[in-house]
């Protein structure tokens, strides 16, 4: 898989090994439309307030949390090349500490991590006053209805399936997503 962005000013190209499946659209869907429809699309909003929350935020500082070093650094390269300040954590416990220090404007969080998974990490982050309203984006290989429901209940705003459609993610972070 090759992550790439053709947006201005600098663009981004990073490589990581991952299975690739062509997407049918970059627009978000609602997860209650069923997994068959969701399988053709790669991301969606988990609640009705998610799009307005991210559209009104001035996002310049991000935190990427993933136990896979290749994914973490690929995301770092792409996002920092677009001008974002990016902090990284390898697990949920480190993410809790780091988030309090860097105060990210949005958090990209893997779900399947050892020790403290992404669901538990999101719930804990939502209990931190300064982070309670920060947009949280699940970035995961999981793509089943039970995961959507648990992510929504854990406080996530958006759900992206890996490998991430980087242009859709960048549009979302800029408040330019189509939903």
From TrEMBL:
InterPro entries for this protein: Bact_response_regulator (IPR050595), CheY-like_superfamily (IPR011006), Sig_transdc_resp-reg_receiver (IPR001789)
Keyword Phosphoprotein: yes
Domain Response regulatory: 61-177
Modified sites of kind 4-aspartylphosphate: 110
Any Pfam family: Response_reg
Keyword line: Phosphoprotein
Segment forming the signal sequence: none
Transmembrane regions: none
Domain of life: Bacteria
Name of the protein described by the UniProt record: Response regulator
Organism: Robbsia betulipollinis
């Amino acid at each position: 898989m090759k992550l790439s962005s053709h947006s201005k000013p600098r663009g981004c190209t990073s490589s990581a090994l991952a299975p690739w499946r062509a997407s049918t659209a970059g627009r978000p869907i609602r997860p209650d439309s069923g997994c068959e429809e969701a399988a053709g699309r790669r991301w969606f909003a988990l609640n009705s307030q998610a799009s307005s929350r991210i559209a009104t935020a001035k996002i310049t500082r991000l935190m990427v949390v993933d136990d896979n070093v290749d994914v973490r650094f690929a995301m770092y390269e792409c996002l920092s090349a677009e001008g974002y300040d990016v902090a990284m954590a390898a697990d949920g416990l480190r993410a809790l500490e780091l988030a309090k220090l860097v105060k990210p404007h949005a958090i990209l969080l893997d779900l399947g991590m050892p020790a403290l998974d992404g669901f538990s990490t999101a719930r804990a982050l939502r209990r931190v006053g300064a982070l309670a309203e920060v947009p949280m984006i699940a970035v995961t290989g999981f793509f089943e209805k039970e995961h959507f429901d648990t992510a929504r209940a854990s406080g996530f705003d958006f759900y992206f399936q890996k490998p991430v459609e980087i242009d859709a993610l960048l549009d979302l972070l800029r408040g330019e997503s189509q939903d």
